[in-house]
Amino acid sequence: MAGNTKKNKGKGDSILQQEDILQAVVLADSFNVRFAPMTSERPRALFPLVNCPLIDYTLEFLVSAGVQEIFVFCCSHADQLKKHIWASKWNHKNSHCIITPIVSEDCHSVGDALREIERKSMIRSHFVLVSGDLVSNMLLKDLIEQHKARFKVDKSAVITLVFKQAYPGHRTRSEEDDIVVATDTTHRILSYQKMHGKMKARFPLNLFEDNREMILRYDLMHSHISICSPRVTELFVDNFDYQNMSDLIRGILINEEIEGNKLYMHVIEEEYAARVTDLPMYDSISKDVIRRWAHPLVPENLTAEGEGYKLGRHNVYLASDVTLERGSILQEDVIIGQGSTIGTNTIISQSVIGKNCVIGENVILENTYIWDNVRIESNCKMSMVVLCDRVRLMDSVIIQPGCVLSYGVKVGPSITLPSGTLLTLYPPSHGESDQEDKVDDRHMNRTNRQLGDVPVDKDVVGEEGEGYVWQPPLDPDDDDGQRQQLLGLNVSVEDETKGSSEESEDEGQEDFVSISPPPDDTRLFYNEVIDSMQRTIEENVKLENLILEVNSSKYAYNVSMRELVQLVVKAVLEMPHLKVTEPLQASQLLPRLTTLVHKLLPVFRNYIKNVESQLDCLNALECSGVPLY
């Protein structure tokens, strides 16, 4: 009996230990087109960031945090990701972590991926959810314990989101991270709004009524590190319209009173956390790694055995077998990969050069990212440029900021590429899907004969060049509001065509808030103003009471003063028409309006006090369409 008890106890301990294993899910697919055409041959998770695959930063972060089981969700280029994982140091027998690739080529969003993970019943307890483009050195252990302790007391605390303190304009705060977050004193998230360039944030009145203290923060960026309960994957299964984490956050906040789920946040200040979401972020995070802000995630700690870097002055890193010809100058923030050669009188600053690259004489490289096996001949000059594998630049090529040359492109000789040029080795085609990676997989199956069917534009790539201009597709499924950003340029690829229309639209909204027909809350406010005015006229109520009723309705429906003035004027113009069977002519309307305005004069004086309110009044008169003459 004692032996059986001991045996059963050992079995129970084994099950308990299995449940206590800390798990993580890495989404190695980005489900957008922000990095095309660079994703034609390689997924974003395998992009070299300071000559180390991007996903290695993510895996190193999770393993260092004590995660024991990691599921890497692969969609496009799954074979490359699986091969990289199997060959990684974490797949050795002495590794303390198990990494399992999950392949599903039918998924088109984060929501689809998490629904697939739930279908396969892989999540047994609380887990860490991150993207495969994350670079972070934060310690997760204490945060995970806090999350579990909170969940033990309150089962509705389904997720803890990690934010990094970063003020507007911070180098690692992208357009996507322009958010306003409202929390209570327990760090429970009450409101989460993406600004998308807007200058004002709106909050429902009940937030202030239900919370005696509330904190509003505009100094945060979402690191996309989430500590999740098993309930999170169930929420994606229950709600098929959830396509990304923004949908989940929005759904939890909207349905909090019905479903009872709650969001909490954790803010880091000194630790590092950022995602490579676009080319400017690729540039910023690369420089942070070179400057050692993400320590211990630094070049010498992330390279394979035998490829270690030596750190010199001014953050200059040199791998083994690097050849520097006489007169070459490495100024600052430079890393040169194994087997590369730098020619005579070449000047390099704030740039990354990959493995087995050949840089000719009298070349100037500034803020340039060069991947593996690239050849640059003499007298070339470039700044804020990305050159993918096997690119060749012939003599005297000048590349302006914001250009991307995809795999195998040849340019030159003696040609200048204008700012924002995107080149790919494959000719443009039509009717293809917009999803990143899957878009360009088809290109790889084309034969050289097919490539020759479309003539190369020699005016763009030069007489000996090979390549085609790539036009960025629109990404209608990108709910984050993030367009493809070009390296070194402050505008997106769509700004030239959309900027003027958006600016005029914003100006119109600022000058006049539409009052016909009004939005739902504004319409309710307008109806109450009509009722209050009608009751004041019919029952001879004091005008002071009318003003009090209008002010009360203003706060109840969160109406701005500009909207109030316009809607009060509209209501006055509407009053003479309320109890008539036929439209009034101008000769009939004017006397009635004169009498009504005279009676309500104190109301006008109360709200129309300055030039701005007078303009609002005139706007309402102009848009009402009422014939007064």
From TrEMBL:
| Record-linked CDD domains | eIF-2B_epsilon_N, W2_eIF2B_epsilon
Q: What is this protein called?
A: Translation initiation factor eIF2B subunit epsilon
Family classification: Belongs to the eIF-2B gamma/epsilon subunits family.
Q: Pfam families attached here? A: LbH_EIF2B, NTP_transferase
- What is its subcellular localisation? Cytoplasm, Cytosol
**Which of UniProt's keywords are assigned here?**
Cytoplasm
A molecular function (GO) term: transferase activity
Per UniProt, residues of the W2 domain are 519-629
